[in-house]
Design a protein that fits this description.
Length: 197
Amino acid sequence: MKFTDKVKSVFRKKTSDKFNVYHPEFEQAVEPAFKSEGIQYYRFQSEAQMPMGRYMVMQTLLHAQDLRMDHELLMGYILNMKKAVNGSLKTGINLTEVIRILTQMESRMVQAFEVGTTYALASVIYFDDTEDLYSYDKEHNKKKVAAWKEARMVDFFYTRPMKELLGLSDTSPQDLQQYIDQQSELMATLTSETPES
């Protein structure tokens, strides 16, 4: 097999759901994780067993989790700071705006975790029996996250590997739900607005 064929096979996207938890390739690699609203969710016994396409999505979200913001938001902050210091604003150079943006970024960084990214990360790690494990269907996973939030499901945050990633061993489910509820509002206020150009 040529190298390019190997790369294509690693990133292949299957349209058939036969590459779900029941496929022989995965049936020994996955295990039940939790149930929510009657749906069984699974996880890989080891993240090393995760197919490359799904693993790459997980790595991207882990990076965003470390920063408490995704790449797009980080680039927005940087763009706004550049505008504030290069004199392109109507007000000219605006160091107050730079301090405001830096304070917003710092406030995000000191959070225990960013809720939106954490749910997205969970949607990669935990999957139902209909999902194609070679890919990551954004729309399907948005629906999963919405269902978890509506059910106020936080139990999976205490299962491996999320428990290790978030360090939640000393936090009660009630305290975690309160943090999630409060943080959504806080993060909205910390999202930098585009300064006047």
